[in-house]
Amino acid sequence: MRYVIVGGVAGGAGAAARLRRLDEQAEIIMLEKGEFISFANCGLPYYISGVIAEKEKLLVQTPQSFTGRFNVDVRIFSEAVSVDSANKTVHVKNHADGTEYDLSYDELILSPGAVPVIPPMTISEKMPVFTLRNIPDTYAIKDFIDEKKPATACVIGGGFIGIEVAENLKEAGIDVTIVEAGDHIMPNIDLDMAHGLHGHVRAKGVTLALGKLAKEIAADGVVLADGGFVPCDMVVLSIGVKPATAFLAGSGVELGKRGEIIVDEYLHTNVDGIWAVGDAIGVKNFVSGEHSVIPLAGPANKQARLVADNIKGRKTKYKGTQGTSIAKVFDMTVASTGLSEKDCQRLGIDYHKSFSATNSHAAYYPGPEMMSVKLLYTKGEGKVLGGQIVGYSGVDKRIDILAVAIRAGMTVFDLHELELAYAPPFSSAKDPINMAGYVGENVVLGESKIATFEQVLAMGDEVTKLDVRTEAEYARGNVPGFINIPLHLLRERYTELDKSKPVYLHCQSGLRAYVAERILSNLGYDCYNIFGSWMWYTMWQADIKATAAEGEKTFNCARPELG
Predict the structure, then answer these.
(1) Is the dihedral of CA 393, 395, 396, 398 positive or negative?
(2) CB-hemisphere CA count at 13 Å for 113?
(3) Beta partners for residue 387, in sequence order
(4) What integer pLDDT is reported at residue 411 of this predicted model?
(5) β-strand 332-338 against 283-284: which pairing, if any?
(6) Residue 554 lies in a domain
(7) Are residues 149 and 211 located together in one domain of the fold?
(8) Distance (Å, rounded) from C-alpha 123 to C-alpha 509?
(9) Domain containing 77 — which CATH number?
(10) C-beta separation of 489 from 469 below 8 A
């Protein structure tokens, strides 16, 4: 048997290695368009700043080491130009010597990956413009920084790669502006979880041009669609990727509307003998069941093993991708899994959401750090749909617990029953995930009702707006329209509240507001706990002001006489 694999990074290399472990006699040929295989593409941004200092650290395997270990014919600089599925051949161009040839196969695995999206805009040849997808891209950025010593950079796109590039450019001593067309960076989380993240990024010296569309890349900066301008010495495009599947035109392999390869639950295409894995394929969203394109390294590696098993007759189904992801943003950690609130709204899912803010470990042990957890779950049974966490230490552990909970079909009732490891340096007796479960249970059972500041601030005198923090906390800052009755005085003063009006409560982070909610509910009041409380409100307001100021800065930049 001859197995031909197109693509030599995560999916392709993983499939080749697994095939060899299952079949020592087969001929395995792996085609890679570039010079490098099996490289650590998730680590590429960290070479720019020198966090990863040695080039060799980016290489998981070299062609020579891979061939030696797995007896695979690795052909670098070999591009699959087209596929003739009727004759079971791949037309290959060797970029090293310019030759072309047809390569026959018995089974073909497609793992071409994805390529950066280049927007349809005018791009000046005088501006150094980069993307970051592979090792040559990384070297190009690092060499430019070392040789030209740019003072300023504009990163277009605020997703995972954009944020990581911005962080590492800043660590390299460059002033960075991120231009993001959406209302927040890190689109895997919702806006209500991004306010604190925005503040953290700004505190590190990065400018955020949010809600700004890049229209043109000029010789001296980026022109924005609203007439604004971001001056810079270099530009990094990071607005997303698309499947690298142009070579499949005329092959008979079915593609989706985004160019993704359509596969069945066994990762087989519509063409006999052709399989596909990785960033180039469409997958089932594990939570919603909808067809999705979710380019992540973890799923690609799992698909690689599975497709090799299926080729060898094991018939294992790929059950879908739920999009579990995590990112380091300077000192902060941002993670998510499953559906976001945006997803739930788009899909018409009837859901609850809740928020909890807890310490990463026991408060009495030195160095606790606040962790914000947003949980999404169904009404009725409380089945967990998604989770988002923003914090510092311990976020990785908690998002993985939520990822397992979603995979296992758990509910918020299950979350608080989880027996999780506890010692003061690592957690609390009630872990942040337990606490998120308790809050979710209260909402599902109707013991707590959630409202948002946006909703409450639009209400008038027909409701009571109550702040149950201490007098000192209230004096240091408060939300307009909210009266103050500290929690410890509430049982003495609750009669000051009009029982005919709903009561909307907040405290510092939500716990005291819940206690107040239960007191008043048991006394016959209709109560609502406000999402995120004062902690969230201050981040929200700071974000609004900073976004407006940065928007004015970029706008006036194009008009020096107004600056």
Answers:
(1) positive
(2) 26
(3) 337, 375
(4) 98
(5) unpaired
(6) no
(7) yes
(8) 47
(9) 3.50.50.60
(10) no
Spatial contact of 15 and 304, defined as CB atoms under 8 Å apart = yes
- Residue ranges of alpha helices (H) inside 354-466 are 395-407, 412-417, 432-444, 453-457
d(CA 298, CA 301): 5
Number of alpha carbons in the 13 Å side-chain half-sphere of residue 93: 9
- Look up tokens 């920084």; give the residue: 145
Asked whether residue 556 is domain-assigned, the answer is no
The whole-number pLDDT of residue 562 equals 43
Q: Identify whether 560 is part of a domain.
A: no
Which helix H or strand E contains 87, and what residues bound it? none
DSSP code for 160: H
DSSP labels for 272-290? TTEEE-GGGB-EEBTTT--
Q: 138 and 96 share a domain?
A: no
225 with 298, same domain? Answer: no
- Residue 319 falls within a domain, yes or no? no
| Per-residue pLDDT, 429 | 94
The token pair that represents 112 in the structure block: 């071409």
Instruction: Tell me how far CA of residue 105 lies from CA of 87, 253, 313, 469, in angstroms.
Output: 9, 16, 18, 70
What is the distance between the alpha carbons of residues 51 and 330, in angstroms, rounded to a whole number?
A: 12
Residues 73 and 95 grouped into a single domain: yes
- Assess whether 48 and 108 both reside in one domain: yes
pLDDT number for residue 563: 40
For residue 524, the 8-state DSSP code is T
Averages of pLDDT over each 10 residues, the chain, 563 residues: 95 96 97 88 85 82 92 97 98 97 98 94 96 92 96 97 96 96 96 97 97 96 95 96 97 97 98 97 97 93 97 95 96 97 96 95 93 96 98 97 98 97 95 97 95 96 97 97 98 97 97 96 97 96 96 78 44
Place of tokens 């959630």: 450
Total of domains in the chain = 4
Residue 42 known to be catalytic: yes
| Given 42, 154, 344, 507, the catalytic residue | 42
Q: Examine the domain organization and report whether 246 and 106 are in the same domain.
A: yes
CB 504 within 8 A of CB 531: no
Would you give the end-to-end CA distance of the chain in angstroms?
69
DSSP 331-356: TEEEEEEE--HHHHHHHT--EEEEEE
pLDDT of residue 131: 96
pTM of the entire structure? 0.94
Q: What is the pLDDT of residue 367?
A: 93
**Do 91 and 190 sit in the same domain of this protein?**
no
- The domain of 383 spans 331-444
Q: Tell me the C-alpha distance between 81 and 248, whole Å.
A: 8
Residue 139 backbone phi and psi in degrees, to 5:
-60, -40
Neighbours of 1 (CB within 10 A): 13
Residue with the two structure tokens 């049974």: 381
Same domain, 433 and 482: no
Quote the pLDDT of residue 60. Answer: 81
Residue closest to 361 by CA, chosen among 407, 310, 426: 426
Q: What's the rounded Cα separation, in Å, for the pair 41 and 145? A: 20
DSSP output for 93-159: EETTT--EEEEE-SEEEE---EEE---SSEE-TTS-EE--SSHHHHHHHHHHHHHH--SEEEEE--S
CATH code of the domain covering residue 461 = 3.40.250.10
